[in-house]
Amino acid sequence: xxxxxxxxxxxxxxxxYLEILTMKKQGWLFQKDTTxxxxxxxxxILDKGSPGIISSLVxxxxxxxxxxxxxxxxxxxxxFNQIKTKKQYFETLKHCDISKxxxxxxxxxxxxxQFIQLLAIASLNGSGYVREKAVKKLSVSxxxxxxxxxxxxxxxxxxxxxxxxxxxIHNFKKTEYLDTYINNLFIFxxxxxxxxxxxxxxxxEIVSFIVEENKDYIFNKFKSYPDKARxxxxxxxxxxxxxxxxxxxxLIQDKHFxxxxxxxxxxxxxxxxxxxxxxxxxxxxxxxxxxYKLDKEPDFLNLVSTxxxxxxxxxxxxxxxxxxxxxLDFARIYYHNLLSNSHVIGSLLGIAEIDARQxxxxxxxxxxxQKVKVKKTAFLSLKKLDExxxxxxxxxxxxxxxxGIRNAVVEFLSRKETNEVLEKARLTxxxxxxxxxxxxxxxxxxxxxxxxxPEIILGTIDxxxxxxxxxxxxxxxxxxxxxxxxxxxxxxxxxxxxxxLNIAIEVxxxxxxxxxxxxxxxxxxxx
Length: 527
Known about the structure:
Blueprint: H1 9-21, H2 35-48, H3 54-57, H4 66-80, H5 86-93, H6 100-109, H7 112-122, H8 128-139, H9 145-152, H10 159-171, H11 178-183, H12 185-194, H13 200-211, H14 215-221, H15 227-238, H16 245-252, H17 257-261, H18 272-279, H19 284-293, H20 300-305, H21 313-323, H22 330-339, H23 344-353, H24 360-365, H25 372-385, H26 387-396, H27 403-413, H28 419-431, H29 434-447, H30 449-459, H31 465-482, H32 491-511
Helix pairs in contact: 1-2, 2-4, 4-7, 7-8, 8-10, 9-10, 22-23, 23-25, 25-26, 25-27, 26-27, 27-29, 28-29, 29-30, 29-31, 30-31, 30-32
């Protein structure tokens, strides 16, 4: 059934198309052929509808008009292929009005490819008899599409359906369906968690078929599989008693860090070259886990000392902790790194982490660096080391055209509600481009209170629609927080807010930016 709100315009529109679709030949004496109107309605349903409409279309698969039947089948299959989640499959298709005899009818009326798709839909039907017949037909279809829906039915609450699905799974246990099984392994994982039926036996059989009987095939195609499938395959491969050298190399080169990390289970089997590669891995978790595993090695202190200025805070902290008993001057090390322009990011952050204020000068010098990431990191560090210098930099860069710098500055200055900040932000909003205006509105929104209200009001009458829209969101937040404003605005502040509010109300009345004037009621707060 097609379920939606009666107040939803799209629902009403599609409902009208369904009404047109039900029309047959009109008139008593001179009948009018309505085929074209019905086909047009079907095309519009397909264009505007969603998978939830499938159950309302199913009856038209039995229409006497072959054109309507074929167009309906095309629409249903197209919408069916738009379903992306397991939950949506079940909720969308269980109410489809399909009987056992309908399945025989579909087999004779539609192509084999269409019939397989309709069987997949029927396999999710609310009737166990319909599901059983659909599953049995899918089991002998020799079509890879069937595998996914046979797996779903392995956990069916009706025993004959489960048995039919199990028989079908065995029928597809052939090399040509390997990729299909691999791409659907996640369904097995999900069904295991549902715990309605114990699938350990059949699951183990399929996994063995994939990773043991077809090991070479999997190895050669491993990189081509999606992340989810590769991760599951890697778990199965690494669950064996040992790893072959070529398998370790395959996993250690994978683009997904979880797959690379699986080789750490066999750390003792890794070569020095492979360990070195993992020590340089872009994943913080992998680098850290490798260091943990090496902490009993004779040369560990020399090794971990090279990670004092690592880009990751957890690695830097672990390195400093491991070396704390040998009285290294970490601040001095960071300072010399910055002098030589090496390990810059980690050293800038490291100096701030250990609160080495004596070296704030060299941190400040990196505010002029050409690299945005370095400049931003220097600013973040300087906030902890010398707040006044950070404030000066932030004020001067409030209108910076680099979003990374500007966003960091806005975040910092939102907690510095000075007249300088407010005035600079107002001027930047007045003369800035759209992106600068949005950043200033973001700043005023974060500052909140009475200083923010006039600027947010101005945003609601900006010529740019996106700025008006974001201002409306900020204005609603201001209203919500207004009950917690325990201070009264100053006289000048109050007068400015009233003037801007009156001007903005007139603009809204004239230009009708919104259905209702969003500023109505604000006078209450400015009495």
